[in-house]
Amino acid sequence: xKKIYAFVPLALAAVALMxxxxxxxxxxxxxxxxxxxxxxxxxxxxxxxxxxxxxxVLLSDGGNAIMTDGFFSRPSWLPLLLTRFESNExxxxxxLRQAKVRKVDAILVAHAHHDHAMDSGLVAQKTGATxxxxxxxxxxxxxQNTPESQxxxxxxxxxxxxxxxxxxxxxxxxxxEPINVGFIDHPLHVPAKLGDxxxxxxxxxxxxxxLGNVLIVPSANYKPNAFDGVHAPVVVxxxxxxxxxxEAFTExxxxxxxxxxGARLVLPVHWDDFARSLREPLVPLPxxxxxxxxxxxxxxxxxxxxxxxxRFLPALREVSLPVLDDPKADERH
Length: 333
Ligand SMILES: [Zn+2]
Description:
Blueprint: H1 2-23, E1 45-51, E2 57-60, E3 65-68, H2 77-82, H3 89-98, E4 106-108, H4 114-117, H5 120-127, E5 130-133, H6 135-143, E6 151-153, E7 160-162, E8 165-171, E9 203-208, E10 214-217, E11 234-238, H7 247-259, E12 265-269, H8 292-306, E13 309-310, E14 319-322
Parallel strand pairs: 3-4, 4-5, 5-6, 10-11, 11-12, 12-13
Antiparallel strand pairs: 1-2, 1-14, 2-3, 7-8, 8-9, 9-10
Helix pairs in contact: 7-8
The chain binds zinc ion (ZN).
C-alpha cells in the first residue's frame, strides 16, 4: 500500500504539468478570416481607431483625438503580484511612437485599477491631454505630478466636447467580483502595490461624432437599461473574464450593450494578457484568469443571431472604422 501512495504526489505533479503546458492559454486563432479586422472590408472609412491592448483605444478624426485609459506599462505578473511597481516610460514611449501618437485632447479612464489608470497622468503629460476620471483615478495622476489643469473629475451624464467629438460617460458596474474595491483618497505615490489601485467608480463612454457613434464598454458588465435610447453602430466591447461568467450573463450583457444600441460591428477589447509588453504580440489571458475560447463561442452565436460582425483589432496600428449609419454606405452586411 505504501508504494502506491508514494506515486500519488508524482502523478499529481504530472497531471499539473500537463495541464499547465496544454491549457495555459486557450487556443484561439484571432487572425482567422471573419475574426480579424480587415481594412479592405471597410468601404466608407470614417473615424480612425488604434488599439493598444486591454481597453486602451485612440479615436481620431484627423483634427482631434480621444483615448481611453492610456495603459502601456503592462508590468509582468511577478512584480504585479509580489512587489511594488510603477509606470515604465520606455514602454509608454514605445507605444506612442509605434502608433505615431502626438497630440491627444482627452484621456477617458474607465476605473482606477492599474490596468486602466496607472499611466494616464504620464500619458497626459506627454500628449497634452486632460485626464477625465473618477476621484480615485485623478489621485493616481496626481501622484505622477500631473498639473491640476490637466485633471477633470468625470461626472456621468455631463458630456465633454473635443472638436467634433462629444463624449458622455455612463456609470456602469465593473465585471463581477472585482479585486481591490474601494477608493483612493490621496495622491498615490509610486512605486505602489497592486492592492493600492482601488477600483473607485467605473465608466463606459458614448462617443458621438458625425462620422458615426462608438460606444466603449471597458469592463464586461451591464446596468439594466443604462443604454436605452443610445444608438451606436460600433461597440468597443470589453470581454475581460467573460469566460468565467454564465452563458445567461453573457447573453444579457450582449443584449444590453450590443443589441439595444443597434450595433453592427463589435470590436472586443480587454481580452489580452495585460502582463506582457506591447513589444510582444497580444495573446489571450491565461486560463487561470479567463477562458476566451468559451467567450468567443458564445459571442459568435449571439453575433450570428443578430447579424452583427465581431472583429479583433490589430495592436498599435491605426485602422479606419466604417461609416455604418447609412445602410447603403457599407454593404458588408
Ligand atoms: Zn478592473
